């Protein structure tokens, strides 16, 4: 039994947004996933997909992409990314009903992996795309979701918690954020995030051990389509 993580599959089987245009590790990345994942991940293993699964604008346009993910080996837990337009955060339970036994959609709560709680929310990093009042709102809402997920896991008796954020834990180039303050206060030791793809963004945020927390970036192109073994 092992726990793996990777993010930013950005599939586009039913839309015209192939990631091949980005070159490098993106060229034919779907085939790399098909070649690599089954050789590493067994049916008893768990794979956390850390957001930005599909370019589809609604569930209909995502069906083929979600089927591709369903066909990968092991238990699949999907967290929410900024491009997952098919996933309305108010209707996560609807998605879970629809894909019961096939995919798990995790946003703002926690999933159980052995004796470890996996807490996930999208997070937010200010990349200059939103006006200041919106940035404040988005950070505040995501911070609440993070706190809520950690509180629920702790209330259920979990000491061992891994946090998954889609966005990096800080704004680009920053050392601290409301999120890192919360994670440190809650004594979290492991944080996994994605979203930073393209070489110029790989070092946008924290990596390695920072103030007692181990941070790992798992965007697919950064990992060259090899999932990170977390546990
Ligand atoms: Fe993203």
Brief summary:
The protein is of the alpha/beta class and 231 residues long.
Strand elements, count: 11
Helices and strands: which structural class?
Answer: alpha/beta
CATH class: Alpha Beta
Query: Strand percentage, roughly?
Result: 15-25%
The gyration radius over C-alpha positions equals: 16 Å
Helix content: 25-40%
> How many domains comprise the coordinates?
1
Widest sheet: strand ordering: 5-6-7-8-10-9
Major beta sheet summary: 6 strands, mixed
CATH architecture: 4-Layer Sandwich
According to CATH, the homologous superfamily is Metallo-dependent phosphatases
Protein described:
- There is one protein chain.
- With 231 residues, this protein is α/β, with parallel strands linked by helices.
- It has one domain (3-229): Metallo-dependent phosphatases (Purple Acid Phosphatase, chain A, domain 2, 4-Layer Sandwich), CATH 3.60.21.
- Helix content is 27%, strand content 21%.
- It has five helices and eleven strands; from the N terminus they run E-H-E-H-E-H-E-E-E-H-E-H-E-E-E-E.
- The strands form two sheets. Strands 5-6-7-8-10-9 form a six-stranded mixed β-sheet. A five-stranded mixed β-sheet has the order 4-3-2-1-11.
- Strand 2, helix 2 (59-70) and strand 3 (75-79) form a beta-alpha-beta unit.
- The longest helix is centred in the middle third of the chain and has 24 residues, at 132-155.
- The chain is globular and about 40 Å long.
- The model has no long low-confidence stretch (mean pLDDT 97).
- Bound molecules: fe (ii) ion.
- Fe (ii) ion is lined by residues 51-52, 81-83, 166, 195.
- Residues 51-52, 81-83, 166, 195 line the site of fe (ii) ion (FE2).
């Amino acid at each position: 039994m092992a726990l793996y993580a990777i993010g930013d599959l950005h599939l586009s089987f039913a839309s015209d947004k192939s990631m091949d245009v980005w070159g490098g590790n993106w060229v034919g990345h779907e085939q790399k996933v098909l070649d690599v994942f089954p050789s590493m991940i067994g049916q008893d293993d768990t794979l956390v997909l850390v957001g930005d699964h599909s370019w589809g604008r609604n569930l209909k346009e995502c069906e083929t992409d979600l089927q591709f993910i369903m066909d990968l080996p092991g238990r699949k837990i999907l967290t929410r990314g900024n491009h997952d337009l098919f996933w309305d955060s108010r209707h996560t339970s609807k998605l879970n009903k629809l894909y019961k036994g096939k995919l798990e959609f995790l946003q703002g709560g926690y999933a159980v992996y052995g004796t470890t709680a996996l807490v996930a929310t999208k997070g937010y990093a200010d990349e200059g795309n939103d006006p200041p009042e919106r940035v404040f709102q988005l950070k505040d809402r995501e911070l609440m979701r993070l706190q809520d997920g950690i509180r629920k896991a702790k209330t259920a008796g979990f000491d061992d918690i891994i946090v998954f954020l889609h966005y990096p834990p800080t704004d680009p180039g920053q050392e601290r954020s409301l999120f890192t303050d919360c994670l440190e206060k809650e004594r979290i030791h492991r944080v996994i995030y994605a979203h930073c793809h393209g070489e110029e963004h790989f070092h946008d945020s924290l990596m390695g051990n920072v103030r007692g927390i181990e941070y790992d970036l798992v965007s697919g192109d950064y990992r060259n389509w090899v999932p990170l073994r977390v546990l």
